[in-house]
Amino acid sequence: MLKIAVLGCGRIGCMHAENIAAHPRAALAGVFDVHRPAADDIGRKLGVTVFDSAEAVFSSRDVDAVLIATSTPTHADFIEKAVTAGKPILCEKPIDLSLPRVQRCAVAIGTTKVPIMLGFVRRFDPGHRAARDAVQAGDIGDLHQVVITSRDPGMPPVAYTEASGGIFRDMTIHDFDMARFMLGEEVTEVSAVGSRLVDPALMRRLNDYDTVTAVLKTASGKQCIINNSRQAVYGYDQRVEALGTKGMVVSENRRPNMTTLHRADFTGKSAPLLNFFIDRYAEAFMAEIGAFVDAIDSGQPPEVGFEDGRQALILAEAAIKSAAEGRTVKTSEIG
Amino acid sequence: MLKIAVLGCGRIGCMHAENIAAHPRAALAGVFDVHRPAADDIGRKLGVTVFDSAEAVFSSRDVDAVLIATSTPTHADFIEKAVTAGKPILCEKPIDLSLPRVQRCAVAIGTTKVPIMLGFVRRFDPGHRAARDAVQAGDIGDLHQVVITSRDPGMPPVAYTEASGGIFRDMTIHDFDMARFMLGEEVTEVSAVGSRLVDPALMRRLNDYDTVTAVLKTASGKQCIINNSRQAVYGYDQRVEALGTKGMVVSENRRPNMTTLHRADFTGKSAPLLNFFIDRYAEAFMAEIGAFVDAIDSGQPPEVGFEDGRQALILAEAAIKSAAEGRTVKTSEIG
Amino acid sequence: MLKIAVLGCGRIGCMHAENIAAHPRAALAGVFDVHRPAADDIGRKLGVTVFDSAEAVFSSRDVDAVLIATSTPTHADFIEKAVTAGKPILCEKPIDLSLPRVQRCAVAIGTTKVPIMLGFVRRFDPGHRAARDAVQAGDIGDLHQVVITSRDPGMPPVAYTEASGGIFRDMTIHDFDMARFMLGEEVTEVSAVGSRLVDPALMRRLNDYDTVTAVLKTASGKQCIINNSRQAVYGYDQRVEALGTKGMVVSENRRPNMTTLHRADFTGKSAPLLNFFIDRYAEAFMAEIGAFVDAIDSGQPPEVGFEDGRQALILAEAAIKSAAEGRTVKTSEIG
Amino acid sequence: MLKIAVLGCGRIGCMHAENIAAHPRAALAGVFDVHRPAADDIGRKLGVTVFDSAEAVFSSRDVDAVLIATSTPTHADFIEKAVTAGKPILCEKPIDLSLPRVQRCAVAIGTTKVPIMLGFVRRFDPGHRAARDAVQAGDIGDLHQVVITSRDPGMPPVAYTEASGGIFRDMTIHDFDMARFMLGEEVTEVSAVGSRLVDPALMRRLNDYDTVTAVLKTASGKQCIINNSRQAVYGYDQRVEALGTKGMVVSENRRPNMTTLHRADFTGKSAPLLNFFIDRYAEAFMAEIGAFVDAIDSGQPPEVGFEDGRQALILAEAAIKSAAEGRTVKTSEIG
């Protein structure tokens, strides 16, 4: 049993804490939050230690590993401290919104052997993974094009949007990682287009977009097309498609049940899409904990690590620049 | 937290024990099996008491309720004992293979207020339940026909088949309950047809069938058509369809993921059907525990009880008689 | 070019006339109807001869073959006359509503070599045929069960229903033929159940049913389950499913286009089922003409002939008897 | 009956000739081809006049309208001649591969009242049209994003590719028109990315691509993403998706039948996609003839005309420039 402490007891931290508590090969070593009442609530509910400080977590002998789910600006600091303390890390994305800060963090941790895993949870979705596995197994031959459709059900709260770093760093970042996961080789060029259609006034104020398309290309010419919208009223739309020389594989959307209704004016699914990321990726979040435990047990590096977080941010920076300048941006201009 | 003890530590008992242990509103009070090592294994794994006898379970103050997952011939005895002990019961189907034994058990428990729930787990499947809810909500108007397709992936072991009581009592019993769940009124007539196609020699020896169709009719004329096969090599086929004056609702099959593969010679699902009843109905088994806890917490009778178990067995007896005599059998001839 | 004359210029006759006119290997030799204006209309529209009498058709040198689409009571007479005249026949189903009349017709035509094809059009549907071909090719191994769902969008006019001979002779007759098409061996036993749910008053008056299930069994035990309703408000529901030792094949419903609509409260097909048998089986009706021409060109007997019409009627008679008497009826009791 | 003559008796011209001959409101006035034997073959088969020259067609009193299906370099000339002769025109796309030639043709025909329709056949596909109609009816609210997937089954012959004008002018041109059809407002910016993956050597030699993505944007910010590949071995992949403020509509792929096969190792469609554009768009080609007849009968301009052909070519030119220069190109730079 790997004893994992959770830092950050917001919505995602609490979900991770419950998943760790329920996982057959992990145990919840305790929780911490700068806002003590939040930590107390979940600590009491799950019957675990509430730590007084992050330092107390890092120095505790009863903590084998840490899951970092605090606010984004603290991620890099906590990664550095956990590395110093020798505690394996599962950190929510992103490492930081600032690429220079990420670069400094990379320097600080150097060539540490402490396992660091980044929370790009979609890699652990059974459907997306089955698609990636089909690609790797050669089921579709040589890969040519990947199409990622990724649309949120609706705009997040304004305060969230203001602090998000913009759609490319906040939302598309998941798709940039999915692109790298599917493509199997590094992206060298990014062409992005942004529009303000869902909430034009807010987007203009923030110099942000709510509807974007990014086209990525690798050195060998493989393409990945990402389309994002902040508003898909029919539900959280999460699809991944890959075309190759021998065929196509598609990870389709999921619903809570497979019931269909047929009426004079309607034939279709009676249940809407799983509409909230925690529901949609429930299996993936649990599998992510398992993958973290596996990495530590096996001594192998986690399959998605610090460098993956850095690369996804580089693609976000390239997309921001591309959309702003109306030109294809090479990733070598960024990293 | 409702403290539930599990009697019977075979495959299904162990699954229930794990579900109870993981359920947020239930606790596993201990386990018992006549074969002590089986109880020891799961007791050790889950860190709970292993009882020495069934009597020890029924008399324990630390047991709020019991889940009976022992061999079928012991069900009725344990139900009677648990009622005497005042312990609420969740009992795996069937109550007994013998209708007279079930009738005696009914007399023995009389008008007890001890909650008794029968493990007709399919009622708790999200898809089938959504279909039933659509019917009850009037989404398809007045109900006319129900079609239940229920096919096992393959023949069970010979020893199991020999002791099963025959396909109607063992396999169709689930569909008889599903029919009653969907129809919302009692069945009055049963017409059944049996064939020996999968393993004719074994079926002749046991005077049993491996491929059957049963057509049920209610007093108002509503029909339910059940088709069963012991062998669907494409997977565990579990579908429920209901036709009414305003439309149709269908609970379709489920797969572990929603990935499709498209090749020159193939377009389809890349994943097979969920192929084992414990996987297929995993959500339903967990929901069943929740429904049991709810019934006890609320003081309401469980939504599927002893009488439902008795009625399903009456339909099985009617079907056996119908298939043997080549005629429609009224349930009033049986019960 | 095979010159075919059409007898009967009602809805179906006119459709056949247009199909023959449009067929690349057939020509419309003329039309006839006892109600002269009906024949004049379609004759003028298609620019062909309008015959004064059926006799004029049978004796015409310009007529190579005849398509009989007159009212049912005239079918047997016209078949006998066409045989006498040596004109190959494509006759709409049924041969007659009276089995004795069909038997007399069989005697009258004896061992004629004149090709007689029965209009069981569903055999020519691309989907149903692909399913049958999969069965014959061994794609699903040995056949065990066939399930035919066949529901009309709504009740026909009362006058039609009164003269129809009852649901088994009028509607299920198509499914009896489909059963024989799929099963590939003769049915020996029929168990049928009828209900009065759509229009109980009318059904009682006519001693008919509007909702029926028939279970057919062959000597080797293969089963075919047919379910019919006179009212499926979601559209003309036409499905055929076959289960065998190696898998299942399903011919699904068809829609005019493959467009789906996804909204907050709805995900599904934006187009309803093809709702009228002439639209649903448009391809099949055209293919039927082609099969008739092929049979005559090749000198081979048509793949669906007089005996198929007689056998389907025997199954209808058996089903009527079974539903009335509440017992399984052997076809040997009928034929 | 509108008497239409067909110029050009290649594969597409012959298909159009047969469609006109079969159309209830059109008649085939004759055919012409510079390669006389090609015209003779189809003329004999359909029993129509074979013209000696294009001039003979334009001057014939028996010709109400012309369908131009000759080689691309002759289109603009024939359009000019037909306009001079006052014959309404249905011309296969493109008008010409050279935008300057198209501009000169525009000047030549000036403000002619002679109806000119461009053969962008996909607009007449029932599925794509149902999607467009749903957008126009407001079913998905305000339009935000269109995604067009358009992939050929395999590379055309080398000679065809060499003369095609490149993938953007030859293949994407259909999608540029579909984008305009769906968007309902003009595109102002084009960002395109090209890769050489299917046949890199040929593509390098021709300075062409076989795998491309184009992202179009309108003045109001609406986006259309087109992805093309010359090689989809699973079949001719033709999908159109539109996202709006109230939902999404998708025109899915089509197959020749709706039969599915379910085996131990396979669940899916037993029939491949309709794999050849003439089969896939068979209904659309026939509907196109109907729309041409309707336009002439009603005196309304055809719904897809000369200017649509010119605009699609402008988008192709912008895409070529964008892919070559690695930047977003404004359509105002081209037109």
Describe this structure in words.
Chain A is an alpha/beta fold. Chain A has two domains: 2-114, Rossmann fold (3-Layer(aba) Sandwich), CATH 3.40.50.720; 123-300 and 309-333, Dihydrodipicolinate Reductase, domain 2 (2-Layer Sandwich). In chain A, 39% of the residues lie in helices and 24% in strands. Chain A has helices spanning 11-22, 36-46, 54-59, 75-85, 99-109, 126-136, 158-163, 167-170, 172-183, 200-206, 277-280, 282-298, 306-325, and strands spanning 2-7, 26-32, 65-68, 89-92, 116-119, 143-151, 187-195, 211-218, 223-229, 237-244, 247-251, 259-263, 266-269, 329-330. In chain A, the strands form three sheets. Chain A has a seven-stranded mixed beta sheet with strand order 11-10-6-9-8-7-14. A five-stranded parallel beta sheet of chain A has the order 2-1-3-4-5, sandwiched between helices. A two-stranded antiparallel ribbon of chain A has the order 12-13. In chain A, β1, α1 (11-22) and β2 (26-32) form a beta-alpha-beta unit. In chain A, α9 crosses α13 (306-325). The radius of gyration of chain A is 20 Å and the shape is globular.
